[in-house]
Amino acid sequence: MASTTDPLPSWQDSAVKKQIIAFVTQTTTPGSDDFIAVADRIATFDNDGTLWSEKPIYLQVYFAIDRVKAMADQHPEWKTTEPFASLLKGDIEALSAQGLDGIMKLVMASHGNMTTEAFHQAVRDWLKTAKHPTTGKPYTDMVYQPMLELLDYLRANDYQTFIVSGGGIEFMRVWAPEVYQIPTANIVGTTLKAEYTYIDGKPVIRRLSELDFVNDKAVKPVTIQNFIGKRPVMAFGNSDGDLQMLQWTKTGPGPRLSLIIHHTDDKREWAYDRDSSVGRLDKSFEVGKKEGWLFVDMKNDWKTIYKP
């Protein structure tokens, strides 16, 4: 049952906060008309722009950038081939303008052709020293304190929390369990193809430089069904890439809550929506208003942005 103390201290006492608490209280109070059995309390969260920042580009791309730079001497052709040429020139704006296709080329080059263990270790090593180019913070400090509180609040009320992100599944599995307290089995993301093989006489899973699927847009409800097996009763996102997941959640039977994080704070974070090349929020506005989604105004609804 929901706690009587303030479970979301970093949230302003706005209508959005009150509706979240009311929803959790109604769905976890025995005898309530909206009571949801513990086994069905599923909450899914996008990651980029929902649980941590995604500007100027998706934070995982910075890992890919550093990997590509380290590998550049072995690939002289990259100096004249996009998106590698823009990356090596330090032109992040030109890199961002190439969209998902450009990003996926970087990911294929920097994330594949190695064992899963070697990839995990590369991510761990990178996180030890890598800093966000704008804030100077370690990347795992770029997570939103209000959302950490929300995750804790839901779990305290027997909700199972899942990440359903367009980010790489193995990239997130390295650090998300510690940062969000979400186990690896509850993380769903973009996946590279892999194979079971032997290296030096030992069995390994080797990641290929070939895409399995991009976990974005209409793919998200499908991976929710395939990986989780139940439709969520709560879903949280921030962009048109989350539209179908939030729509799939909200239109289900019984009590449902879908919520969009709207980036409106250009002082403490970034302000962007319809015209952004990263985390574009456009169609979800009209769909969300029509279907009764909640919208968080970061500037006005959150007392703080990042974790202390």
Observed structural traits:
8-stranded mixed β-sheet; alpha/beta; 308 residues; 12 helices
Provide an overview of this structure.
This protein has 308 residues and is an alpha/beta fold. It has helices at residues 15-28, 59-71, 84-89, 92-97, 99-111, 116-129, 145-156, 169-180, 219-228, 243-250, 283-291, 298-301; strands spanning 42-45, 114-115, 160-168, 187-199, 202-213, 234-237, 257-262, 294-297. The chain has an 8-stranded mixed β-sheet, with helices on both faces. The protein starts with 14 loop residues before the first helix and ends in a 7-residue tail after the last helix. The model has no long low-confidence stretch (mean pLDDT 95).
| Proportion of residues in extended strands | 15-25%
Which residue ranges are poorly predicted, with pLDDT under 50 across at least 5 consecutive positions?
none
Number of helices: 12
Secondary-structure element pattern, one letter each? HEHHHHEHHEHEEHEHEHEH
Secondary structure tally: strands: 8
Helix content: 25-40%
> What structural category arises from helix and sheet content?
alpha/beta
State the shape: globular
Head-to-tail CA distance between termini: 28 Å
Mean pLDDT: 95
Largest sheet: 8 strands, mixed
Topology:
Layout: H1 15-28, E1 42-45, H2 59-71, H3 84-89, H4 92-97, H5 99-111, E2 114-115, H6 116-129, H7 145-156, E3 160-168, H8 169-180, E4 187-199, E5 202-213, H9 219-228, E6 234-237, H10 243-250, E7 257-262, H11 283-291, E8 294-297, H12 298-301
Parallel strand pairs: 1-3, 1-6, 3-4, 6-7, 7-8
Antiparallel strand pairs: 2-5, 4-5
Helix pairs in contact: 2-5, 6-8, 10-11
